[in-house]
Amino acid sequence: MTQSVVDDVARRACGSEALLSVSGVDVRLGGRTILDQVGFEVRPGEFTGLIGSNGAGKTTLLRVILGLQRPTRGSVRLTRTGRGRSGIGYVPQKVLLEPDVPLRARDVVGLGMDGHRFGIGLPSRRRRLLVDEMLAAVDASRFANARVGELSGGEQQRILIAHALVSRPDLLLLDEPLANLDLGSAHEVVGLLARIAREQQIAILLSAHEMNPLLPVMDRIVYLAGGRAASGTTEEVITTPVLSRLYGHRVDVIHVHGRVLVVVGDSETAGDSVGDIGREINSDVDVVG
Amino acid sequence: MLEHIFQPGFFASDEVQTALMVGGVVAVVSAIVGVFTVLRGQSFAGHSLADIGTTGGSGAFLVNVSPLFGFLLFTLTGAGAMELIGIRRARGRDLATGIVLGVSLGISALFLYLDTTIDNTSGAVMTVLFGSIFTISPSTLRPVVIFAVISLILMALLYRPLLLTGLDPDIAAARGVPVRLVGLGFLAALAIAVGLSAIAIGSILSTALLIGPAATAVRLTRRPGVAMLLASGLGLAAVWLGVLLSYDSYDWPPAHHGWPVSFLVVALVFVAFLATEVGSGIRRGMRERNRTSASVGSDLPEAVRS
After folding, report:
1. Which domain holds residue A99?
2. Which residue of A66, A121, B155, B287 lies most exposed, with the fewest beta carbons within 10 A?
3. Are A227 and A86 in the same domain?
4. ipTM of this predicted complex?
């Protein structure tokens, strides 16, 4: 049943040449299955949301794509577009730096360009201009010279996005960038990312547990539940039959006031979903499990 | 006046010359490695290596080897072992770390006891634990410089990867940085810095020279390169001033026998740190006072009106 969900949605995904193709990825850690036959594709310049509740396997999947976690089975293939671009840019949820660490925001962006190289590295005009350009692209010029450790979470995130962009990646991976932001800042970041994806022709794969802020910009969605994935456009994936098959039991997709709510009762207490809806609407989260 | 500061014979004395040179080299290496130690949050690793180095330094006296090699052998081996056990990552290793450090200091106690009773080298305790920079033989200078250069080359080579892994190890790994190897390289540089520092101001105080100037520098600047230059300057000043004051202190009370260099160096490092802390505290306080007085001023009419 899992297989069929993955297949029929994934088959439709193969339109143009894929930039990233993940196929049949299994990850088992200590006897537990974290990812089960996950497969999807990301095409150049596309905005893809990786949606799932906590523990669905989002972070593990990102780590597999980054090459930080070896899959038990399956493969990840990245086709580079060349033109002096690096493969994948990665934006972690947050960095843990003490406020007095001597690194300015612009130093962090510069490290995105050549931090992986050995040696001290000499300043150059070209380097400085590129760093300034990236800082401007994420609206961070204002705090370019501030210590990273003293910036707010949202400001640090912009710097990390600039850090990832400066190497000109084909694909930008972001781990839960909206998790600690209020609704207004979340919309701002999503708008910023959509603009960057368009202007710089960068594909974006962004993990989130709440899909609603992403609905206006997402070209495709990869929905993870219990380690299994369904992918396609939101219209294809966020439907009662597809998600019910993915979860393995009845799931309701409800459209309320322009928002999409996925109501998940667990298999034994599926009849209780009415109670869940009530909780759902108050709690402003779109996956209830 | 100048004669009171640089007393006759200060620069002519061989001991002073060796002390100034060894101390200067050690101060620079400690400061530069120290900035990365602060940046990576590894000062505990530095302290652990100092404890382990104590065993090597005290053992060296037993087998009639220069304590420098005892310190370095043990700190470098300790660094390798730390990487193998992964002390830094796993919090569960806390107990193991505590036990290993306790044992190494215990063995040092035994070695130092044997040094003083059997070998009758009564200066060993003082030399190993608190250093005696004026008794360093001139022949030690060459190995000190060689190890210092090795450590500085390592730091120059690993400069950018260390900053990147310090920012986030996952980002670095995703960019193809061999994170473990870079970490091991840094631990080796740290081990050398601690070992060299132990020669100058003793194993127990060696972390003061490692962390003190670096911690002061990172409060004064937000640029990593500048922080390293600044820390080197501060370290150099503390060590050289310490040597000078110690030389002058032969006239000082209570014993008229000279004050120990290590105490003076650590005191100077601490004073510099305290001064920047107080300085930044005052600056912050003034900024806040300005802000509150401004807001009180604007609030007042409204409060009166209502």
Report:
1. 20-233
2. B287
3. yes
4. 0.82
Measure the CA–CA gap between B224 and A136, rounded to whole angstroms: 23
Together in a domain, A32 and A143 = yes
Q: Among partner residues A102, A111, A120, which is closest to B156 by beta-carbon distance?
A: A120
Residue ranges covered by each domain of chain B: 2-8+16-305
- In a domain, residue A3? The reply is no
Residue A146 and residue A38 share a domain: yes
Determine the Cα–Cα distance for residues B190 and B177; give it in Å rounded to an integer: 20
**Cβ distance of B172 and A115 shorter than 8 Å:** yes
B224–A111 C-beta distance less than 8 A: no
For residue A154, how many other CB atoms are within 10 A of its CB?
15
Are A102 and B35 inside 8 Å of each other by CB? yes
Q: Cβ of A122 under 8 Å from any chain B Cβ?
A: no
**B-chain residues within 8 Å CB-CB of A66?**
170, 173-174
Residues 6+ apart with CB under 8 A from B168: A92, A95
A12 in any annotated domain? no
Q: Is A204 on the interface with B (CB under 8 A)?
A: no
What b/e string do you get for A203-233 counting C-beta neighbours within 10 Å, with b at 16 or more? bbbbbbbbbbbbbebbbbbbbbbbbbbbbbe
Q: Phi and psi of A201, rounded to 5°? A: 55, 50
If 0-12 CB within 10 Å is exposed, 13-18 middle and 19+ buried, where does residue B266 land?
Answer: buried
Question: What is the CATH code for B2-8+16-305?
Answer: 1.10.3470.10
User: Are both A127 and A163 inside the same structural domain?
Assistant: yes
Same domain assignment for residues A24 and A141:
yes
Contact A92 B170 (CB under 8 A): yes
What are the CA-CA distances from residue A30 to residues A33, A34, A68, B101, B230 (Å)? 8, 10, 17, 33, 49
Nearest-angstrom CA–CA distance, A210 and A190: 12
Taking CA–CA distances from A148, the nearest residue in chain B reads B222
pLDDT in tens, chain A (289 residues): 444 444 444 444 444 578 899 999 999 988 888 999 999 999 988 999 999 988 888 999 999 999 999 999 999 998 876 665 668 899 988 777 788 889 999 999 999 998 888 988 888 888 899 999 999 988 899 999 999 989 988 899 999 999 999 988 999 999 999 887 888 888 889 999 999 888 888 999 999 988 888 988 999 999 998 888 999 988 888 888 888 888 888 888 888 887 888 888 765 443 433 333 333 333 344 454 4
- Integer CA distances (angstroms), B116 to B63, B109, B198, in order: 13, 11, 19
| Same domain as A247, residue A216 | no
Interface of B with A (CB under 8 A): 35, 38-39, 41, 156-161, 163-164, 166-168, 170-177, 217-219, 221-227
Question: Is A126 part of a structural domain of the chain?
Answer: yes
Tell me which chain A residues have a C-beta less than 8 angstroms from the C-beta of B172: 115-116
Q: Do A102 and B167 touch (CB under 8 A)?
A: no
Does B160 sit within 8 Å of A111, measured CB to CB? yes
